Amino acid sequence: MDKEAGRVYLFGPFRLDPMERLLVRDGETIPLTGKAFDTLLLLVQNSGHALEKDELLKAVWPDTFVEEGNLTQNIWLVRKALGDETTAPRYIETVPKRGYRFVAAVTETNADAGRPPARRRFIWLSAVSPLWTATRRLVSWRTLVTVAASVAVGIAVGALLLRRQGPDLSAYRYTPLVTNHRWQRQPALSPDGKTLAYTAEVGGLAQLFIRGLDSPTPMQMTSLPQDAILPFWSSDARRVFFVTGPPFELWSVAAAGGAAEPFLPDVFRATLASDDRILAILRTDGSVWISSPPGSTPRPYEPAPFEARGFFDVPAIRSSPDGRKILLMINPTGRQQEYWLLPLPPGPSHRVLRSVPNLQTAPFTWMPDSRHIVMALLTRPDVPRRLVMADTSGDAWWPITTGMTDEGWMAVSSDGLKLIYTAGSHDYDLVEAPVTGGPARDLLTTSQWEGMPAWAPINQQFVFTTKRRGAEEIWIKSRQEGWERPVVTSRDFPDDATKIFMGPIFSPDGQRIAYTRVSAAGAFLWISPLAGGAPTRVTSGPSMEWPPTWSPDGAWLAFTRSATDKTELVKVKLGSVDDPMVLAEFDDDYVPQWSPTGEWITCPLPAGFGIVSPDGKTSRVLYKKDCPFTFWSKDGGTLYGVTRNGSHAVLKAVSVAGGEERIVGDLGQDLPASWAVPSIRLSLAPDGKTFAYAVVRQRWDLWMLEGFEAPPGPLGRLLRRLGLKK
User: Fold this and answer.
1) Prediction pTM value
2) Rounded mean pLDDT, 77-83
3) Cβ contacts of residue 565 below 8 Å, gap of 6+?
4) Who contacts 305 (Cβ-Cβ below 8 Å, separation ≥6)?
5) Measured between alpha carbons, how far apart are the two ends of the chain, in Å?
6) Among candidate residues 316, 247, 183, 58, the one with its CA nearest the CA of residue 669
7) Phi, psi of 29 (to 5 degrees)
8) Based on the number of CB atoms within 10 Å of its own CB, is 153 exposed (0-12), middle (13-18) or buried (19 or more)?
9) What is the pLDDT of residues 247-285, one digit of tens each?
């Protein structure tokens, strides 16, 4: 580093001093680990140029072989220190499949030029100084030596902690537990930690299994005609409870074997607490109920933490090991996941973990101390979910694993030494199927996520969403000519970071696309011209607006919108300042489809799924059961729908004129899917012979991790709070 003598780098409000190894912002030192500082320095020294991942690994770890996850962790630490975002980077840009580039303007200057006085965070010294001043005449030299030694030890410990780069992987021991199905997930350990319950795929459905940790042979506990999911144990380990549906119910089965039995209806999620004296229930409307003793008529949890109006994403509810509280993870507004601690017996609740990133999360599990949890967290859009530990009392979280594979459902043994979790991958691809019935075939498959396809009205082009470059974008592809290109990216929205794009769809003239964009401000409709130009927001209202459908003349958009107390199907005239016109109200979000004739818009109805006229005055039920995944025939005379029959997707059709419903054919085991809801759209090709949709292809295994770091004690929590421990 001799070449850096007397040189510092200035960018934005930051000052990077290689000799002092300091990152300073507005006079205050920003703590960075040693390797994170080296990573930032390399990027700044090569600003404007892409650095390969291998190049960074060799430079930062010159004498050690390390995995790519260590570099990913350091980039994350640097971005956190700079307040940077991956979706709209101001400093560090991800170069897909290559590495990283520092994109901010950098100025080199002399180390003493304009140096602001840095307020260094010598925590122990500042804490000791007043005591030293007040007692310097009263203490002996031996006491002073003791205090000085304590301070030195504290500084040494702090320095070691500052040099850590996340989890210490050297002590980790990984063991594959269950790998014999296409997927296996949702592990639940018995109270004694000797037996594992989990769900696995059998014929396209989730069934319940149990096996001893020291036994290679599992036992299948259920063979139901519907999914058996989310197992949990009774405190005496004699029974395993699980959820089935829809309609969602709580069932149980003896751990020794036998027939599974219904236990309680109207249960979407559940957890046992207080030595099985309390069963806490989450229902589909987002309300929490208590059944005590379990199996008795539930009563509402009061006072309720929030007004129940449904929820978005995937919720979870878990009781703490000491039985004194419940942690509820739920997204009641569509804006972000919230974490609520509900005391037992019921009392006032409060939100926790507000610092957890507002990205995709998976259910969590408690640590034995009833304070910390382990959860799977997507900390950045361009990396897989990884396991993290979070402090429900201190509002802090830190990584356990590097997240080299996508990690999800987990369970912790009662001694806190074993962590069983789901690891694997799931890939979203685009397929197409004939309207006459028959298996779906691939339309677009890559190693990255592609979803939400929509055909252009007059040529062999379609739009879709993809994560192939890290952040989510909307692309267009020509099937005939083979080219593809992005049409909407986060760069089109520089003032507000984009989290996700949903449900793009062509205008009838093929010149524009309408879509939903989700950011921290909410979910709103936008229109972008294919020829280029700035996107335009469709409305100015505060409600959450979900993927739209065009009227045949291109003058109107119909879509569903969600407020705190209702969900509505509305239509809005483009260019008008009038409020959207309400056509119908219902309980759930979906993606509507306007008929080619302009006479009808698909809509869920109280008696089933059907259609409503564009003026909202007339409605008809076409499917007696819910069928939200639909598309119109080319002439508008038939409404097709895809439903599930056991483990297979089935194509149905109903005549709009006569109302006759018929089964067209079997599409196979791949059901329409999306990583964002509601955004599943079935799109008819221009020739009217096939329709396109997205599917998810999964592979999940169960692994056991031992040797991970236990939750910190009081000193560790203090260091984390002070920013001295990552």
Assistant:
1) 0.61
2) 84
3) 307, 309
4) 288, 328, 340, 342, 349
5) 26
6) 183
7) -70, 130
8) exposed
9) 899 999 999 999 999 999 999 999 999 899 999 999 988
